[in-house]
Amino acid sequence: MALQVLLVDDHQMFLEGLETLLQRNNTYYVVGKALDGLEAIDFIEKNKVDIVVTDINMPNMSGTELTKQIKEKWPELKVLVLSMYNDREIILDILMAEADGYILKNSGKQELLKALAHISNGGTYYSNEVIEIISENFADEKKSDGTIKKLTTREGEILKLVCQELSTPEIAEKLCISHFTVETHRKNILRKTHTKTIVGLIKYAISNGIA
Questions:
Q1: Where do the domains of the chain lie, and which CATH numbers do they carry?
Q2: How far apart are CA 180 and CA 188, in angstroms?
Q3: What's the pTM value of the predicted model, to 2 decimals?
């Protein structure tokens, strides 16, 4: 059975184009369209929805507030943000609102379908461009406020570098340690922070004062 998708955007033409694109794929069925967050909440209360694809800047209720309310009332409902905004603070607000994914409107059809597939299977999907924007201010010299007590000093260093999207070999070279040591630290960081992905690690870093 096709997944029920609600599209939310204040531009009617964009909604119709997105609906046409998704209707060509048998995996998804556009069950409804809304022009702002309030309309979306009203629709969700009355209809079965599996995934909400929403813009951010809309009248009456923004996509950020919509995401927060959805995750409070219907935590199992998936939210993919599709927006033109590539501002770090806006993206961080969406990240902390627990959106399942974020891609930019200049993304292609295949990335949209990839994002939908990831989140519909219980994962998260933040495009590479979005991850780069989030991570760009994770300076290695920036000090923690001391709240990440679970992590050792070395693990804290590696967490910052992971959030900058450095690979295991790059981290090993930067810290003058072996690849095996980096992988061991990465596993310990994931275990201690109860996270599974770079998005989870970034959220942890933000919450603990090192973003």
A1: 3-134 (3.40.50.2300), 137-207 (1.10.10.10)
A2: 12
A3: 0.75
